[in-house]
Amino acid sequence: MAGVSLLPSERLFAAGANANAQVIRVGLVGCGGRGTGAAIQALNADPNVKITALGDVFEDRLEDSLNALRRVGKDRVEIGDKDKYLGFDAYLGVIDSGVDVVLLCTPPAFRPAHFEAAVQAGKHVFCEKPVAVDAPGVRSVLASAKLAKEKNLSVVSGFCFRYEDNKRELFGRVLGGDIGEITTVSTFRNGGDLWYLDRQPEWTDMTYQMRNWYYQNWLSGDFIVEMSVHSLDMMSWAVGDKLPVRATGTGGRQVRTDEKYGNIYDHFAVEFEYPDGVKAYHFTRQQPGTTFRNSVEVFGLEGKASIEVGSLYEIAGKKPWNYSGNISNMYQTQHDELFAAIRSGKPINDGEFMANSTMLAILARDVSYTGITTTWEDAIQSDYEMGPKIGEYDWNLKWENPEVAIPGVTKLHA
pLDDT above 70 covers what percent of the chain? Predict the structure, then answer.
C-alpha cells in the first residue's frame, strides 16, 4: 500500500479559517446495511463530506450500497468505476484512494487488520463494534489505537450507546456518586432469531460462510461478541471502565440446532469479578418466542440506576432522577462528533475502551465455551486465533468451521 505524505488533519486545516470549506473525503469498507447507514450519517454530519470510495467482497452489496447513497447524497457521492474496490484486499484500495476518513463496517474478524492499515496510512476512522473476535486481534487494535493517538487521528467506535444523551447523563450521575459506591451490575440482552441466507448452487464454502458470517464464530465472534457486546460495554461504562479480574460463564444452543446456524450459541450467562469486590452479571439469548429484554441495572449503597433501552432511564434512592430530555439519534451523533473533531483538530480516540469492551465479550464467550473460570490476564495474553490470517482469504479456501463448543471439552487456550 502506498504511503501518504500528508496526514488528513494537516491537509484539512492547512487553510486555517477556511478549513470548514474544505472537502472531507470518505471511504466505506463493508457495504452492508450498517456500513451504508454509517456512510449516510457521515454525509449528514458535515455539508462538505463526499463519499469517494467503496469497498466490499461482494459486488451486489457494493452496488446496492452505492444506489442507496446516491439517493441520499446525490452529487456528493463521487463514485466511478475506478472508485469501486472488490475482494478481500478491497480495504487497501479504499485506504489508498486519497480518502481522509475510513468507515470500517465489515464483519468483525477483519477489523484489526483494516484498522491497522487505516491508521498506518494516516486516516481518521469510524470503527464499527466489535473490533475483534480474539485476543490477538484486540492486542492489535490497542496498538493501532495508540498509534492513532500519536498521529492525532480521530477514532470513533460503533459503541453507539456512549453517544446517546440519556445514557451519557445517567452514567455520568452513576460515576459522579449519585447511587453511592457501586456493588453490582446486571445486564440483559434477550431477543429473537435473525436473518439467514439460503445457500446458492454457485457458492463455494467460503462464499456461504461469508454470506452467513453472523453464524460463523470465527467471523462474528459469536452473538455475545457481535451484538450483546453493547450490554457489556455499558456494564464497563458503569464501573468506570475498570478491568475485571476473572469471569465464569455457561451457555449453549437449545434452538439453534440446525447446521445452518453454523457454530454459534443461542444463550450465555456470565459473572465478572472486579478487584474491588464488585460483581457484574450478563445474561443474553437469541431464541424466538421468548421475552425481549435490553436492560442495565447498577446497584449502589445509596440507590439504583436503571435502563430499559428505549423507554426507561432513572435513578432511585437518595438522589432520585428521571431523564426527561430529548432522545438523540446516537448513530448520527457519533458522526457529528467525529467530523466536528476532525474540523477542530481536537481528535476523539475511543480506541482503548472499544478494545477492552470487545475483550470483555471475548472473555465471556470463552469461559462459556470452555466452562473454565479464566482471568482477564490469561485471556488477553492468549495467542488463540479463531480464523485464517488476513492474507490467507480466498473464495476456494476450505476453512474448517470449528465444532460447536462443549463446556468441559472445548479447549481454547491450551
Answer: 95
